[in-house]
Design goal:
3 helices
């Protein structure tokens, strides 16, 4: 039977955690999830996500095409 119970362990071994990806420069930031998961506070999650997208787009707009 396949389930996601081993996903956290696999992510750790494969260096696919948010913190690992941040250290490797693959992502710009880790957006914290609300206590209990995003499904518990969809409005708060959407607000946090919007703020992160807007913040990062502002930074990207300052870069030239070559830098991008």
């Amino acid at each position: 039977m396949k389930d996601g119970s081993k996903a956290p362990q696999a992510a750790e071994v494969l260096k696919l955690t948010g913190e690992d990806l941040l250290k490797l420069g693959v992502i710009d930031e880790v957006i914290p999830e609300p206590l209990g998961g995003a499904h518990r506070d969809p409005q708060g999650t959407a607000k946090s996500l919007k703020e992160a997208i807007v913040r990062n787009l502002k930074q990207l707009r300052t870069l030239s095409k070559e830098e991008l």
